[in-house]
Amino acid sequence: MSGGNFIIEFFPDGSVAPSTKEFDALDRGIVEIVQTGMHYNMDKFSCGGLYNIIAAGPTPMVYLTWYLQGDGQELIQEMFADYNVMGVSVMTIGRAEMFGYSNKPLESMADFKGLKFRTAGDWGEILTEKFGASVIFLPGGEVYEAMQRGVIDAFEFSSPSVNVPFGFNEIAKYAMFPGIHAPGVLMPGLVNKDAWAKLPDGFKVILEHAILAECLRNHLVESDQDMWGVEQHKAAGMEIIYLSEAVQKEIEAAAEDFYNKKAEEDAFFAKVWNSVNEYKKALGETNKLQYPYYR
């Protein structure tokens, strides 16, 4: 788009900042643009999880629409007011994740009591507070060995096609769906404010549109590859479990209660939560009217 005049140098995870600590490196100017999960920054932002994965929250296109057409992007700039960071469009809008992996069937939330379960963000708090799980956070690269060694009993990570390259379909008996704990995964485009200010105006426009174009392309690729990913789980001999509607509604009720209680204690959290939750419900009703049952 720039005729080769605008170059972005890429660094792999962990090479210039500890894994999951990319936001800190961005704030300090060590890097100038990152893709990272805001739920890794709950120590700084009480509503960080609302900008990455909302348990029983919006599906991908609803989430993306809220961020870009609703209040999402405006509110994230307010959240970053004290940091040298700003949001520019959306880097990734991921499909629903898998509910998890286990060597015993987890078909009710009672099965989570005392379970050593790898996850992150709000879902980890909900599992702990509402269902008595023993939640452990591990970076993705450490999950395979931890499951093999019995450090964890079960885990969740991402969508089928993302999980297969990690070998997760090789180390558990049961593959669980749907990803109601993570029905859409949003990663805002984050840039260093000083670096952004130095960009020519034309490059700012290029970057914003390139990020959104790549976001959509990535979503299409993941959608296509998830069909392959599901087949790889079946080919590995895994048993597929799909949570009943009753269990899904139990999770939805627990999540809403969790978020409502956090909103009572934090005015800015309430501002973001009410915005995204109301948008999810309103657009959800519209989509039910517009789309066939097999949507």
How would you summarize the topology of this molecule?
Blueprint: H1 22-28, E1 33-34, H2 60-69, H3 72-79, E2 85-94, E3 100-102, E4 116-118, H4 121-131, E5 134-136, H5 140-149, E6 154-155, H6 160-163, E7 174-177, E8 185-192, H7 193-198, H8 201-235, E9 239-242, H9 245-265, H10 267-290
Parallel strand pairs: 4-5, 4-6, 7-9
Antiparallel strand pairs: 1-8, 2-8, 3-6, 3-7
Helix pairs in contact: 2-10, 9-10
Give the tags.
295 residues, alpha/beta, D-Maltodextrin-Binding Protein, domain 2, three-stranded antiparallel sheet, 10 helices, 13% strand, globular
Tell me the total number of β-strands.
Answer: 9
The SSE string, one letter per element, is: HEHHEEEHEHEHEEHHEHH
CATH topology of the domain at 9-96 and 180-295: D-Maltodextrin-Binding Protein, domain 2
Mean pLDDT metric: 95
Spatial strand order of the main sheet: 5-4-6-3-7-9
Contiguous helical run count: 10
Which class best fits the helix and strand makeup?
alpha/beta
Shape: globular
Strand content: 5-15%
CATH class of the domain at 9-96 and 180-295: Alpha Beta
The description of the largest β-sheet is:
6 strands, mixed
CATH superfamily of the domain at 9-96 and 180-295: Bacterial extracellular solute-binding protein, family 7
Q: Architecture of the domain at 9-96 and 180-295, CATH level 2? A: 3-Layer(aba) Sandwich
For the record, give the distance between the C-alpha atoms at the N and C termini, rounded to a whole number: 35 Å
Unreliable stretches:
none
Using only CA atoms, what is the Rg?
19 Å
Range of helix content? 40-55%
